[in-house]
Amino acid sequence: MSSRKKVWVSRPLFPDVLARLAEHAEVQAEAVERRHAPEELRAKLAAADGAIVGLADRIDAAALEGNARLRVVANLGVGHDNLDLAALTRAGILACNTPDVLNESTADYAWALLLAAARRVGAAERWLRAGHWPEGMRFDDWLGVDLHGRTLGVLGMGRIGRAVARRAAGFDMRVLYHNRAPLPEALERESGGAEWVDKATLLRQSDHLVLVLPYTPESRHAIGAAELALMKPRAVLVNIARGGIVDDAALAAALREGRLAAAGLDVFEGEPRVHPDLLALDNVVLSPHIASASADARHAMAELAAENVLAALGLVPGRPPAPLNPAVLEAGRRARKT
Ligand code: 8YV
Q1: Which of 12, 20, 155, 175 has the greatest CB tally within 10 Å of its CB?
Q2: Residue owning the nearest CA to atom 10 of ligand 1
């Protein structure tokens, strides 16, 4: 039997990253993208020392039941609502994510969605492809809403939120944000001169609102009917954070009834399913959770996940770069000393 550590990779990954893992470990990488049934997930995790998983893999107490082998789970993402950190910590398993390497690309994409939704790019393209242009177009057709000179709101001013805010300077926009606590002044200055306001003020004053907050039980439906009712009727809402932060049915109703100009959504409650009411609307731009999907960002995320696993298993020197439950590392160190 091989004494090499085993690493399971739950999704197809870049060949050079798999080769890097294979220099140090026996790699079992899934060749096809698919969902793993709970029983299969448990079996794969039980047979590995380390795992690289995607957001669709829910790693909770049930997935870890009876697992005596696994030492590290590295998420392919900065968000980690698919990982039950308490269960992983109880089991002495390190959890890691991929922060920072995706900040700029994800912020770029927030602006892509905002611009596309505000200026109706998706609907206009569908109309053109359907051959309607030769039928005639009025001077006052396809009127969108401006970004420049308006107020950008950012709900969730973490690293990605700040990267979104920084870009507002190019559009001469005022930036408001809401977080549990205001940022230090220097960070506000670096983030487009962003000003902290309470959530209701953010909703009332933003011409365009970008959601960049993590998904937690508290942030579920942070934007529902009541919050949408506070927003300006010509506002555009962008969600690049997580499905479930927005009540999709309430949003669809607001968009349908003209209580909001448009929305750009990259994430959905219960994705890959998309609420049928959203699919029926023209004033919403929809994309399949691709905000971090630039070639460079996705590659850097995969590399970081691999380094997390290799370091956690002691196959390369140094600490894992992005631990989520570092108490597990400390406990491991104590155990080795005794
Ligand atoms: C996904 C993300 O990881 O990092 C996150 O939290 O949501 C994304 O970057 C990516 O879409 C792969 O599923």
Answers
A1: 155
A2: 77
Measured in Å, residue 77 CA sits from the centre of ligand 1 at 4
Ligand 1 contacts CB of residue 213 (under 6 A) = no
The token pair that represents 128 in the structure block:
């053109």
Tell me the pLDDT tens digit for each residue of 110-133: 999 999 999 999 999 999 999 999
221 is catalytic: no
Euclidean distance between CA atoms 270 and 220, whole angstroms = 12
- Whether residue 338 has pLDDT greater than 50: no
pLDDT at 330: 87
What are 53's two structure tokens?
């998983």
Superfamily of segment(s) 6-101+295-337: NAD(P)-binding Rossmann-like Domain (3.40.50.720)
pTM over 0.90: yes
Superfamily for domain range 103-286: NAD(P)-binding Rossmann-like Domain (3.40.50.720)
* Centre of ligand 1 from the C-alpha of residue 39, in Å: 24
Residues of the chain within CATH 3.40.50.720 domain(s) are 6-101+295-337, 103-286
* Cis ω before 272 (30° cut-off from 0): yes
